[in-house]
Design a protein that fits this description.
Helix content is 0%, strand content 50%. The protein is mainly β. The protein has a single domain (10-157), classed as Beta Barrel (Cathepsin D, subunit A, domain 1), CATH 2.40.70.10. A hairpin with a 5-residue loop joins strand 8 and strand 9 (91-103). The relative contact order is 0.32.
């Protein structure tokens, strides 16, 4: 995985649009959550399988809220399975993947747990381990400091990859 080293502090807001290019996600609204250790992504139809000697996971995501017509099927290697405690104190076993995140013109690898966040406002949480080496400064008074994703990027992705698993 190629990553661009962050060389100077970048200010971000408490919510930002991020991209997950290796997963085919051009933009997803993320809440920056310094209280969460690991980043989390809302997924469903999660299925683990073997590909050669690697454990893999296939999952689906609706990256835009209230847009069930836009669905992306993603596949990634599993790097771990962890017990994660949510904000309500419930413990859940989750798959962990590593993929690059793009934010503010920078790109670097992060770990993401896969979880059902259906009842949550944000499809993704950007946890504190994703805020690399102190080079991201979170300004809680601001939102979308690095820009907003144009929803037209998703026109060609409607129902992309829709197959019965």
């Amino acid at each position: 995985m190629k990553s661009k080293k962050i060389t100077e502090a970048t200010e971000i807001g408490w919510r930002e649009w991020v991209a997950l290019p290796e997963l085919g996600i051009p933009g997803i609204k993320a809440k920056v959550d310094t209280g969460a250790r690991t980043s989390s992504l809302h997924t469903y139809y999660i299925e683990s399988f073997r590909e050669g000697d690697r454990d893999m996971v296939r999952f689906r995501i609706h990256p835009l809220q209230n847009r069930a017509d836009i669905e992306i099927v993603c596949v990634a290697p599993i790097i771990d399975i962890r017990l994660v405690k949510d904000s309500g104190g419930h413990v859940e076993e989750r798959f962990v993947i590593e993929t690059p995140v793009s934010l503010g013109g920078q790109q670097w690898p992060i770990e993401i747990t896969l979880s059902c966040r259906d009842n949550m406002l944000f499809r993704m949480l950007l946890g504190r381990t994703a805020i690399v080496d102190g080079y991201l400064h979170v300004n809680p008074d601001r939102s979308y400091v690095t820009g907003k994703t144009v929803k037209s990027q998703y026109k060609s992705l409607r129902r992309r990859g829709m197959k019965k698993l």
